[in-house]
Design goal:
The structure is a single chain. By secondary structure, the chain is of the alpha/beta class. The protein is built from ten helices and eight strands. It has an eight-stranded parallel sheet. Helix 7 links the parallel strand 6 and strand 7. The longest helix is centred in the C-terminal third of the chain and has 20 residues. The protein is globular, with a radius of gyration of 19 Å. It starts with a strand and ends in a 13-residue tail after the last helix. The model has no long low-confidence stretch (mean pLDDT about 95).
Length: about 270
């Protein structure tokens, strides 16, 4: 199953309209949209508000990046409960130290396996009452720090600690993904991001190797921002946006996406 990234409600509408079965909220894309780097700067309250916008706009199950849990063990449990209250269907925690880095950059540092397992166990306990079906995903960045064997060892420990799904970040080849899936059986998530360590593989390819969800965290934002910067350059040069009209979503197309007719009372479309 593919889960494209949505960094606001309008994009979430489009994800649902095209026919995808899930959404993803990337910490990186969320930070980018606020004009800051992906180092864990966005407050929990803002992320929860974004979760509400995306889930209400799309009516799709939404997986949300929780970075390092916004703090210690107790704060990780609070994050889990807050995400559930906001409408998320699942979240992933990572085993980097704070401040974290993008998973496809070098120079990352990891917390101990024990410390990560304590966070996972706390989140697993926190979700059990409000939503036992909430999917708790443990991400390990160990491949880029200590190698594949360490990543597999950590992943196995994270499953034992209570993770429902494992997210191996920044694997380098298709063979590595296949090897990881064989060594760590169970639910798996793959990150198909551009300009990173992972080669471009299709959703079907990942599925055949045993990966249940494939996220495309920043794909649509990269497309949008390239179009925006090109359009701004043209506007600056020409002093008019008329030449851009063929590239634009029309007013009617926007209204159709939102399910809005100006002459009628509007209510949030669901599904």
């Amino acid at each position: 199953m593919a889960a494209p990234g949505a960094w606001n409600g309008l994009v979430a509408h489009a994800v649902a309209e095209v026919g995808f079965d899930a959404c993803y909220i990337s910490g990186g894309a969320t930070a980018n949209a606020c004009g800051v780097p992906d180092i864990g700067l966005i407050p929990l309250d803002e992320v929860c508000q974004l979760i509400q916008h995306v889930t209400e706009a799309s009516a799709l199950p939404t997986i949300v990046d929780a970075d390092t849990g916004y703090g210690d063990v107790e704060m990780t449990a609070t994050t889990c409960r807050r995400y559930i209250e906001a409408g998320a269907a699942g979240m992933h925690l990572e085993d980097q130290v704070f401040p974290k880095r993008c998973g496809h950059l070098d120079g990352k540092d990891l917390v101990t396996t024990k410390a990560m397992c304590e966070k996972i166990a706390a989140a697993a306990a926190a979700k059990s009452d409000p939503d036992p079906d909430f999917v708790l995903i443990a991400r390990t960045d160990a491949r880029g720090v200590d190698g594949m064997d360490a990543a597999i060892e950590r992943a196995q420990a994270y499953r034992e600690a209570g993770a429902d799904m494992i997210f191996p970040e920044s694997l380098r080849t298709q063979d590595e993904f296949a090897h990881f899936a064989q060594a760590c059986p169970g639910l798996l998530l793959a990150n198909m991001t551009e300009f990173g360590k992972t080669p471009h593989l299709s959703v079907n390819t990942f599925g055949n190797m045993g990966y249940d969800i494939v996220i495309f965290p920043v794909t649509m934002q990269r497309i949008a921002m390239k179009a925006i910067t090109d359009a701004l350059a043209l506007l600056k040069r020409d002093g008019t946006a008329e030449a851009l009209l063929p590239r634009m979503q029309t007013r009617q197309e926007l209204y159709d996406l939102l399910g809005y007719a100006p002459s009628e009372a509007w209510s949030q479309p669901r599904g």
